């Protein structure tokens, strides 16, 4: 128990240290024009339902990303999620939800964002993203931002706080992020396999034009090829 507690504490300190000054809560900006901006918002995936609708927590993330786009703080949105098995497709559901109010040409899909690490590494290596706003729940932001920044992706987090209305779910997830899971995940970072390469949409996700230095409104594109509730 002592070793587990030590690892958890060390991982939490690492996440909060690396992410310090790089997180805001969605909807709580100062309104003075000082809010962080980036070419793209990256939305981390979460569970989708069999009827093709996002789970409530994922819908909150997508709403936050849509607000970033309509306010002009980002020029495009990358949705990254799980599509490793037939009949389960987080990115396509995410795009469908966003396209109700955002143009599809501004939405790119990563079909192999199986967890936060994969999403961060693939955004940098495959999609050519250097700077982004990272959207997930508020309790998840310190670790997510720390992971992305540790693999060379310059991100600021925009955390959703609306999930706090689910008090039990939010408390369980916050406890997991603050406890032993944090240490286990931190230790895995140095031993993770490469999260994939460009090519097949189902394995490598869609790609930007080869010469594109970053994802922008002009060159964002999502290919049409096609049970986790909380954060991975």
For this entry, give a set of tags.
232 residues; alpha/beta; 8 helices; 38% helix; globular; disordered N terminus
Helices and strands, with pairings:
Layout: H1 2-19, E1 23-25, E2 40-44, H2 56-70, E3 76-80, H3 90-98, E4 107-110, H4 116-125, E5 131-137, H5 141-150, E6 154-160, H6 167-178, H7 180-188, H8 201-204
Parallel strand pairs: 1-6, 2-3, 2-5, 3-4, 5-6
Overview of the structural elements:
With about 230 residues, this protein is of the alpha/beta class. It is built from 8 helices and 6 strands, in the order αββαβαβαβαβααα. The protein has helices at about 1-20, 55-70, 90-100, 115-125, 140-150, 165-180, 180-190, 200-205, and strands at about 25, 40-45, 75-80, 105-110, 130-135, 155-160. Strands 1-6-5-2-3-4 form a 6-stranded parallel sheet, sandwiched between helices. Helix 4 runs parallel beside helix 5 (about 140-150). It starts with a helix and ends in a 28-residue tail after the last helix.
């Amino acid at each position: 128990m002592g070793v587990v507690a030590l690892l958890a504490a060390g991982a939490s300190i690492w996440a909060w240290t690396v992410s310090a000054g790089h997180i805001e809560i969605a909807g709580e900006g100062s309104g003075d024009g000082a809010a962080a901006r980036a070419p793209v918002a990256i939305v981390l995936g979460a569970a989708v339902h069999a009827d093709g609708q996002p789970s409530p927590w994922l819908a909150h993330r997508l709403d936050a990303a849509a607000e970033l786009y309509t306010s002009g703080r980002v020029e495009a949105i990358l949705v990254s999620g799980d599509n490793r098995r037939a009949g389960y497709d987080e990115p396509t559901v995410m795009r469908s939800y966003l396209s109700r109010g955002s143009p599809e040409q501004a939405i790119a899909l990563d079909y192999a964002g199986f967890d936060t690490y994969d999403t961060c590494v693939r955004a940098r290596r495959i999609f050519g993203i250097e700077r982004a706003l990272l959207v997930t729940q508020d309790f998840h932001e310190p670790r997510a931002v720390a992971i992305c920044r540790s693999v060379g992706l310059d991100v600021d987090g925009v955390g959703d706080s609306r999930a706090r209305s689910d008090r039990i779910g939010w408390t369980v997830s916050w406890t997991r992020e603050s406890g032993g899971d944090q240490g286990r995940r931190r230790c895995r970072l140095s031993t993770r396999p490469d999260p994939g390469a460009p090519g097949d949409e189902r394995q490598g996700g869609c790609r930007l034009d080869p010469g594109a230095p970053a994802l922008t409104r002009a060159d964002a594109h999502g290919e049409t090829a096609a049970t986790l509730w909380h954060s991975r």
